[in-house]
Design brief:
By secondary structure, this protein is of the alpha/beta class. It is built from 4 helices and 3 strands; from the N terminus they run βαβαβαα. Helix content is about 50%, strand content about 15%.
Protein backbone atom coordinates (compact mmCIF):
# COMPACT_ATOMS: atom_id res chain seq x y z
CA UNK A 1 0.00 0.00 0.00
CA UNK A 2 1.44 3.40 -0.98
CA UNK A 3 1.57 6.38 1.33
CA UNK A 4 -1.37 8.77 1.00
CA UNK A 5 -0.67 12.47 0.49
CA UNK A 6 -2.76 15.53 -0.19
CA UNK A 7 -1.42 17.97 -2.77
CA UNK A 8 -2.65 21.54 -2.58
CA UNK A 9 -3.71 22.37 -6.14
CA UNK A 10 -4.29 26.02 -7.03
CA UNK A 11 -5.12 25.42 -10.67
CA UNK A 12 -1.64 26.49 -11.72
CA UNK A 13 1.23 24.64 -13.33
CA UNK A 14 3.46 24.40 -10.24
CA UNK A 15 0.92 22.65 -8.04
CA UNK A 16 -0.15 20.36 -10.89
CA UNK A 17 3.48 19.40 -11.52
CA UNK A 18 4.00 18.68 -7.82
CA UNK A 19 0.92 16.42 -7.74
CA UNK A 20 2.07 14.60 -10.88
CA UNK A 21 5.59 14.07 -9.52
CA UNK A 22 4.15 12.67 -6.28
CA UNK A 23 1.93 10.30 -8.25
CA UNK A 24 4.84 9.19 -10.42
CA UNK A 25 6.88 8.56 -7.25
CA UNK A 26 4.22 6.08 -6.15
CA UNK A 27 2.21 8.12 -3.69
CA UNK A 28 -1.57 7.84 -3.41
CA UNK A 29 -2.32 11.50 -4.24
CA UNK A 30 -5.51 13.46 -3.67
CA UNK A 31 -5.66 17.05 -4.96
CA UNK A 32 -7.07 19.67 -2.59
CA UNK A 33 -8.18 23.12 -3.70
CA UNK A 34 -9.26 25.90 -1.36
CA UNK A 35 -12.50 27.81 -1.87
CA UNK A 36 -11.72 31.19 -0.36
CA UNK A 37 -14.78 33.22 -1.32
CA UNK A 38 -18.30 32.60 -2.60
CA UNK A 39 -17.97 34.76 -5.73
CA UNK A 40 -18.69 32.93 -8.96
CA UNK A 41 -18.06 35.84 -11.33
CA UNK A 42 -14.61 37.07 -10.30
CA UNK A 43 -11.96 35.15 -12.22
CA UNK A 44 -8.39 35.87 -11.25
CA UNK A 45 -8.99 35.96 -7.50
CA UNK A 46 -7.21 33.33 -5.42
CA UNK A 47 -9.60 30.48 -4.73
CA UNK A 48 -11.95 31.51 -7.53
CA UNK A 49 -14.46 29.21 -9.17
CA UNK A 50 -12.18 29.19 -12.26
CA UNK A 51 -9.19 28.02 -10.18
CA UNK A 52 -11.27 25.27 -8.62
CA UNK A 53 -12.55 24.05 -11.98
CA UNK A 54 -9.07 24.11 -13.51
CA UNK A 55 -7.62 22.13 -10.60
CA UNK A 56 -10.50 19.64 -10.81
CA UNK A 57 -9.91 19.16 -14.54
CA UNK A 58 -6.14 18.73 -14.11
CA UNK A 59 -6.63 16.21 -11.29
CA UNK A 60 -9.08 14.24 -13.42
CA UNK A 61 -6.59 14.24 -16.27
CA UNK A 62 -3.97 12.76 -13.93
CA UNK A 63 -6.44 10.20 -12.64
CA UNK A 64 -6.36 11.45 -9.05
CA UNK A 65 -9.26 12.36 -6.78
CA UNK A 66 -9.91 16.04 -6.13
CA UNK A 67 -11.65 17.70 -3.20
CA UNK A 68 -12.53 21.30 -2.42
CA UNK A 69 -11.96 22.60 1.09
CA UNK A 70 -14.36 25.46 1.81
CA UNK A 71 -12.54 28.05 3.91
CA UNK A 72 -14.67 31.06 2.93
CA UNK A 73 -15.62 31.99 6.49
CA UNK A 74 -12.10 31.63 7.84
CA UNK A 75 -10.66 33.59 4.91
CA UNK A 76 -13.15 36.40 5.48
CA UNK A 77 -12.37 36.55 9.21
CA UNK A 78 -8.60 36.04 9.13
CA UNK A 79 -7.69 37.82 5.90
CA UNK A 80 -10.39 40.10 4.51
CA UNK A 81 -11.65 41.54 7.81
CA UNK A 82 -8.07 42.13 9.01
CA UNK A 83 -7.26 43.85 5.71
CA UNK A 84 -10.26 46.16 5.93
CA UNK A 85 -9.55 47.01 9.57
CA UNK A 86 -5.90 47.83 8.87
CA UNK A 87 -6.69 49.81 5.73
CA UNK A 88 -9.38 51.90 7.43
CA UNK A 89 -6.90 52.65 10.22
CA UNK A 90 -4.33 54.12 7.82
CA UNK A 91 -2.10 51.09 7.57
CA UNK A 92 -0.86 49.35 4.42
CA UNK A 93 -1.85 45.72 4.95
CA UNK A 94 -0.52 42.78 2.98
CA UNK A 95 -3.33 40.19 2.90
CA UNK A 96 -1.05 37.51 1.46
CA UNK A 97 0.92 37.37 4.70
CA UNK A 98 -2.24 36.64 6.71
CA UNK A 99 -3.46 34.17 4.09
CA UNK A 100 -0.19 32.25 4.05
CA UNK A 101 -0.01 32.10 7.85
CA UNK A 102 -3.68 31.44 8.67
CA UNK A 103 -5.01 29.64 5.59
CA UNK A 104 -2.32 27.94 3.50
CA UNK A 105 0.12 27.02 6.27
CA UNK A 106 -2.50 27.02 9.02
CA UNK A 107 -5.93 25.60 8.24
CA UNK A 108 -4.85 23.66 5.16
CA UNK A 109 -2.10 21.82 7.00
Amino acid sequence: MSQRVFAAMSGGVDSAAAALLLRQAGYDVTGVTLRLHPYKDRPGLCGSADDIETARTVAAGMGIPHVVLDLCDLFREQVMDRFVWAYTHGRTPNPCIDCNREIKFGALL
